[in-house]
Amino acid sequence: MKIMAKFIRYGLYLSAFIPLIVFRDFLYPFQFGKTIVFRSLIEILGGAYLLMAIRDKSYLPKINLVFGAILIFASVWCLTTLTSAAPYISFWGTLERMGGLFTFLHYILYYVLLTTIFSKKDHWHTFFNFTILAGLLSLVYGFGQTTNSTFFLDTGSSRISGTLGNPALFAGYELFVAFLSFMLFLNSTSKAKKVFYLSSFCIATIAIFATAVRGSIMGYIFGIFVFFFLWAKQKNPRISKIIFFIFIALIIGFVIFTQLFQEPSFIKDSRYLRRVSNLSLSSATVQTRIWAWEAGLKGWRENPKTIALGWGPENFSMPFAKNFNPKFFVGMTSETFFDRAHNMFIEVLVTMGIVGLLAYIGLLSAPFIYLKKILRQEPVYVIGTSAALAAYVIHNLFIFDTLPNLMMLFSLLAFTSYLGVSRKSNQNSLVGNRMIVNIISAAIIVFVSILVYKTNILPAKANHYALEAVAFGRKGDFASSLNQFKKSLSYNMPGAYEYRHQLADYLIGSKGPSLKDEGVKEAYIFTINEINKNIALKRESDHIPYLYASRLSMNLGQNDEALEYLNKALEISPTFLRTYHEIIQVYWNKEDYDKSIEYAQRAIELNPDAGASYWYLGITYAKMGKIDEAVILIRKAAKLDNFFKSQARAILNNFGQEL
């Protein structure tokens, strides 16, 4: 037992470094590799744990308030997956985010392993030391991104993202690192360790502010307030009240300052300070967040089922598309796809309903309630953990969860449980018959081996083939690209949804093959059939595959089929401007210019500030020979959207006009 427990414990120590993993040779290198390795490791450790648990009941998890809240939330997740608008996606998640019920169950097992295997404070200290070290190494990677070194991905940006690939996600991860460091600094008696922890805290703090993520900075400040407020309350309640009022006064003062003095020279001259101090609801980032929340909430209110149980985990993009705000489309390069709400409370409400939101609030509330009961016993740990969790909650008002942050969350939930539970050794076996124990053990080993292979190794192979296909496509090697795409899709793994769209992107993109080349037409037909599988996968509730299928059909000259796909896309998302623009082009091919004008005008009514709609209307008039009208509209399109300037200049020159 001791050897097995040691094996699991060292495996858990190793897990602290998973946030550092970046798979360069895979699509979505920042999230995919981390999740595949995490799932594989937890499945292997989980198998070893089961081998122990059937021999020693003392390793069974203890039910307490925190674990109960986790199980309730997991049960709701299972229920909402069953009632989901797209159960397959809710279960497996998407390739870019690597979420879904299947992965979430691994976090629960992670919690169980941590609470049952880490039976001493030394175990937790070692684990947290590795966690802090990993956070510092991720910081090194992040600072390396400010250089032009080819060793680092996402280089050349003023905002670091570390090994997480996104500044906001990275800032959330470093929040945990900062508060763990500060907690251990206060608890340590070793001078060398104190220097290490304090240095780690300061460096993590610098990294959080270097990301310029306002929500994370707010979370950090709130976490610091919670820390000192609770610390003072324990020592002297009067001081805690003073800290509280000072904190409120500082917030009010900061808001007043940023509103009354929006452009003092020292802020105006600093891109960083302009971003951090901009609290205006009219800023572009805030506006898009609000529009996304409005779309999601409107979808949540759609019917009693969505109010109670939502659209299903991982399906935020569905109500977002159905209630799409045309103002999102300000130019051809606009981001018009949101698969996350960028607010975990709204995300859970929309995808899991009011039942899910209550369970989520319970999950976040449970550790605070639990910690309050043991404040006198472990003040430093309780206050440090509370501050970290408080910072995380504020951070999550403006972003979503991915694997590194969820690993940190469940680590702290497990640590919270450890602080209040004593485990007594009990060598009683769950199964008395030795032969049955051996049979069960063999079955566990076989099951885990198959599970790792089927759910991690095969998806990794499919992903790698897809990346090779994309690479061949960029080199102009059509045959090799198509062959690798077919290899990838032959595995029929989670992620095939994205691989099919990658194939379609390649065929219709600027570096795609000509339909005159041998085998290309057949590739188009193959791809349309694959895209139809995506339509079925999302139960005809996703407009994106319809748009791909329509463009492929249009390129083949199958205009009626393209129009059929586009009309269906318009049913799903009636205000999505790109669909109108595609319909306009289909009617160009059919030489039905009156219909093109009709859809262009409808697009302009939806968003009069979108230059693309004027562009398509102008080109329609040009095709009809109405040059004067065309010139006015093309000029307006170029004025509204710089994307069209060079094309507009060339066309107007042909008309003897200037831009």
TrEMBL record:
Location of the O-antigen ligase-related domain: 201-361
Q: Where in the cell is it found?
A: Membrane
> Has UniProt tagged this entry with the keyword Transmembrane?
yes
Which GO cellular component term is one of those annotated? membrane
- Membrane topology label: Multi-pass membrane protein
Could you list this entry's UniProt keywords, alphabetically sorted.
Membrane, TPR repeat, Transmembrane, Transmembrane helix
Report the superkingdom from the record.
Bacteria
InterPro entries noted in UniProt:
O-antigen_ligase-rel_domated, TPR-like_helical_dom_sf, TPR_rpt, WaaL-like
Which stretches are TPR repeats?
A: 543-576, 577-610, 611-644
- Pfam families membership: TPR_16 (PF13432), TPR_8 (PF13181), Wzy_C (PF04932)
Q: Where are the transmembrane segments?
A: 12-30, 36-54, 66-89, 101-119, 126-144, 164-186, 195-211, 217-233, 242-261, 344-368, 380-400, 406-423, 435-453
Question: Where does this chain mainly localize?
Answer: membrane
PANTHER family recorded:
LIPOPOLYSACCHARIDE BIOSYNTHESIS PROTEIN PA4999-RELATED, TEICHURONIC ACID BIOSYNTHESIS PROTEIN TUAE
Tell me what this protein is called: O-antigen ligase-related domain-containing protein
Q: Which organism is it from?
A: Candidatus Yanofskybacteria bacterium RIFCSPHIGHO2_02_FULL_41_11
Traced from the root, the source organism's taxonomic lineage reads:
Bacteria, Candidatus Yanofskyibacteriota
